[in-house]
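Appendix B, example 12.
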Amino acid sequence: MTTFSKHLALFSLLGTLFSQAQAAIPSMLGQQALPSLAPILEQVTPAVVNIATKSMVQRRKNPPLNDPFLRRFFQIPNAPKPRSTQSLGSGVIIDAAQGLIVTNHHVIDKADKVTVTLRDGRSFNANIVGSDPESDVAVIKIRADNLTDLKIADSDKLRVGDFVIAIGNPFGLGQTVTSGIVSALGRSGLGIEGYEDFIQTDASINPGNSGGALVNLRGELIGINTAIIAPGGGNVGIGFAIPSNMAMSLKTQLVKFGRVNRGQLGITVQDLSHELAQAFNLSLQQGVIISQVARNSPASKAPLYTGDIILAVNGKKIKNSANLRNKLGLLSVNDQATLHILRHDKQLKVTIKIGQRTVASIGGAQVHHRLKGATLANRPLNEVHQQHQQGVKVVDIQPHSPAWNSGLRQGDVITRANRAPVKNTAGLTKLAKGRTSLLLNIHRGNSAFFLIIR
């Protein structure tokens, strides 16, 4: 047989087999059910709601028409009429009996009216129970019967590669479902929120999905959809969700206090780098090292010391300083935390009580609204002795927050406010009280300058 004849016979055989396979497929599919997520979604989707908000925004006056004669001539009222703005988002029912719904802070922020629409078409007005801008978590409440809530999964057991389903209300289209996998865990340092420990997923998350549910294949809640990276304005396969453990811990405080009652330990830390590990003659690959302990702080009373390495908090391993900040950010004032530390080659357990923040404000709101996002603390005594000058230090700042946009940066020292010396946070609060603007004298490194906050 020639080579051509062999090839022709082979192609003929393959064609026959392919035809037989095609003929067999419908028969096979008719005998067994197709793989589908529908059974899970039938249980889950009634617990995911659409949230619509309305806010009244005061219109700015038109400068050319500020003249009283022109306003009378054109019959323009003196007070500009407010205009209504609307936004859409999603939420998750986590307690059917109480009507509690978890969503994002930015979904309901500044809302005058919040309306919740259920999967069955019913709509209810909602009350805001509490909200936390630093973590972007909020809790609202409705009064309704026959609600369905979601079972909460342990998000600490998630693994990269686990299948997930995202449910929400993208672009106001109505409830929409997408699927994908967990593509990364513990994402932080993105500058999206003050406290970041995101689940990253390639399940499509778009505008309007905020506050919606990220569930596993058991139909359990593992995250609250929050943010996307979208350079082109649409989904590019990188979405972020707040882990369920974090959201539920914050929910407890929001229901109890109406806000997150965060405290502090009184320590300054930095990541345990490879170079630092070598300098301390350690074989550790992760952890944080305490670089400073504030006087009369909960940390000093525990006691903790400079050079201690924090390995875990309440049994949860600490990878870096951002991870530690997130763990402590879930604790309330007067809560107790057990720290596993390494001190001089010895592992110890230290129990410490979370104390009140010795700062001017949480997010700067008590000092001035333009300082929101800055954490301010009394200048450490060792710095005061070195520089011979008291003041208030910016110990932390959220990127792109009002304080950041005003020009403040981490490490800045406020020495004067409205030309008066600033000795401590209490003094700054007193000087700022009732003021619509602040003239701050800022020391940054070896330079000093004035900054107007208005």
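The two ends are 93 Å apart (CA to CA). DSSP finds eleven helices and 24 strands in the chain.
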